[in-house]
From TrEMBL:
This is DUS-like FMN-binding domain-containing protein. Catalyzes the synthesis of dihydrouridine, a modified base found in the D-loop of most tRNAs. Specifically modifies U47 in cytoplasmic tRNAs. Catalyzes the synthesis of dihydrouridine in some mRNAs, thereby affecting their translation. It holds the Pfam family Dus. Residues 1-32, 390-420 are annotated as: Disordered. Signal peptide: none annotated.
Length: 450
């Protein structure tokens, strides 16, 4: 890579800090206001788990020009309730659990919502649901993980280009810039096997009316640690520039200064997107001429303050902190055992301002909550079965004319309703076939299946 000297800007290329974003920027009618500079933009990549609200706000604080949210599946949003939290200023999209949290007053003008989708109608429906809280809609067309591809989403769309084009066209026509929603539509893709195929795809994508395109310079089978391939980059940037589509390069970019070098070397008009480097240090958005990335101790303190201010779920806070604290550091071990915000604060030597009543509540992830509900239901069912069996035994004893318990035809069968096993099911069925005759001759409707 060529070494390009970059002169410090007269005015820092960073837009307003999240806390200072003027209220008028947050109106749904106003297109996103992103300060134009002679530097390329440097933006936070979409990252499941790592790219949740607290990371986005911290990245903005450190100068990210735009932040992408983690991929959210369109169908999971449909049917969500939108709940405002006046205390934190956040907005939650909730179904049985929290699907997605945004903070319009602190991020909206720079926040792009990324969705996983496989169909135009669900993509449009989901986009309309979040429209008032975001500044753009992005379609993930690069995720190679089976949970995405098996449902026809992510990188599967690279194998079904007509479908990808129809999704983008539908979004442009229904929620795009020329509609009342006025949202720029974008797509994030990976490389196809050849440069020619990649360029042909980008040419087609640009014709759908999208506003932005990100090229992750790896093919779908490539692993995150593999070196990004940049031979399609200049051509891709040129195609987008000619089509009036803002182009972002992604893959192996370490920070603001590295981003500017790549932008310059490959003639990119738009900007560069950073994932893993920002996951481990969101201050990588600070240019060297403004002091450069900050030490991790400072970063984790800032992160905690933001996380507490938005009541970030503790499981996510802990996950993100563990990515920021070096694995070899003693603090990493202490953090990994933390169960509450109080524990995290103690490990980081911070005063905990997180409300006690929320500390354990937020510990419950959606999965934990779902498991608890399932357990409660099973317990209720078990109690009901026990009640019915006791009732059956009582009636049976009456029918046998006062035979002592343990005597008679059921003494061979021991039924433990607490056991959810086939043996139990078979035993109860056998009981039903032999002994379950009630005084009137009718079988007791015991639910044998468990
Ligand atoms: C933890 C993690 C989660 C990711 N989640 C998403 C996602 O939700 N959507 C997406 O398009 N890419 C996702 N990616 C891929 C990144 O956006 C990015 O394309 C990739 O990491 C390459 O950038 P890098 O070399 O700067 O890490 C994820 C990557 C990581 C590390």
């Amino acid at each position: 890579m060529t070494d390009h000297a970059i002169a410090p800007p007269a005015i820092p290329p960073h837009g307003p800090q999240p806390e200072n974003i003027p209220a008028e920027n947050t109106s749904a009618d106003t297109p996103p206001v992103i300060p134009a500079t002679k530097y390329g933009k440097v933006v936070l990549a979409p990252m499941v788990r790592s790219g949740q609200l607290a990371t986005r706000l911290l990245s903005l604080k450190y100068g990210a020009d735009i932040v992408w949210g983690p991929e959210t599946i369109d169908k999971s949003l449909i049917g969500c309730e939108r709940v405002e939290n006046p205390k934190t200023g956040c907005v939650d999209y909730v179904r049985t659990g929290l699907i997605f949290r945004a903070c319009p007053s602190r991020e909206k003008s720079k926040f792009i919502f990324q969705m996983g989708t496989a169909a135009p109608d669900t993509a449009v429906a989901a986009a309309k649901i979040v429209a008032q809280d975001v500044s753009g809609i992005d379609v993930n067309s690069g995720c190679p993980k089976p949970f995405s591809t098996h449902a026809g989403m992510g990188a599967a769309l690279l194998k079904d280009i007509p479908r990808l084009l129809s999704i983008l066209t539908a979004l442009v026509e229904n929620v795009g810039l020329s509609t009342p929603y006025a949202l720029p539509i974008s797509v994030k893709i990976r490389l196809l096997p050849t440069v020619e195929e990649t360029h042909a795809l980008i040419t087609s994508l640009c014709k759908t009316g999208i506003s932005k395109l990100t090229l992750h310079c790896r093919t779908p089978p490539m692993r995150p640690g593999e070196r990004a391939i940049r031979d399609a980059l200049s051509g891709a940037a040129k195609i987008c520039e000619e089509a009036g589509v803002e182009f972002f390069v992604n893959g192996d970019i370490k920070g603001w200064d590295d981003a500017q070098q790549v932008i310059k070397e490959y003639g990119i008009e738009g900007g560069a997107m950073i994932a893993i480097a920002a996951e481990s240090n969101p201050s990588c958005f600070i240019p060297n001429h403004l002091g450069g990335p900050k030490p991790w101790r400072e970063v984790v303190t800032e992160y905690m303050l933001i996380a507490m201010s938005v009541e970030n779920p503790i499981s996510n806070t802990k996950f993100c902190l563990l990515n920021m604290v070096p694995g070899k550091n003693e603090m990493h071990k202490v953090l990994s055992k933390a169960k509450t915000y109080r524990d995290l604060c103690e490990a980081l030597d911070l005063e905990c301002t997180f409300p006690e009543e929320l500390d354990l509540g937020t510990l419950k992830t959606q999965r934990v909550k779902a498991q608890e509900e399932k357990d409660a239901q099973l317990q209720a069912e078990r109690a009901e079965r026990q009640k019915k069996l006791a009732e059956f035994k009582r009636k049976k004893a009456e029918a046998e004319g006062g035979k002592k318990e343990g005597e008679g035809s059921n003494k061979r069968i021991k039924v433990d309703v607490g056991e959810r096993s086939n043996t139990t099911t078979a035993a109860v069925a056998e009981l039903a076939a032999t002994d379950m005759l009630l005084p009137g001759g009718a079988a007791e409707p015991v639910q044998a299946a468990v």
